[in-house]
């Protein structure tokens, strides 16, 4: 459940970063564009990390279930 929240927050940060990046490009504001790019990439990283966390937890639960069956 926590990983899902992290994924949502990462996606939100990525979206805000895209908006900043586009606004910076449209206005010629390189600082805003750079901050937007950084936010977008940080959000994408958080999102992918949360996805990996979900995968690991799912695999661990699957292995626990198989171990219980074999006991």
UniProtKB/TrEMBL annotation:
Query: Segment Disordered: which positions?
Result: 1-71
What InterPro entries does this protein's entry cite? CsbD, YjbJ_sf
Q: Which residues form the CsbD-like domain?
A: 7-57
Specify residue ranges for compositional bias: Basic residues: 1-10
Q: Where is the composition biased (Basic and acidic residues)?
A: 30-51
Pfam annotation, one family: CsbD
Under Gene3D superfamilies, the record lists: YjbJ
As for family, the record states: Belongs to the UPF0337 (CsbD) family.
Q: What is the name of the protein in this document?
A: CsbD-like
Provenance organism: Streptomyces wuyuanensis
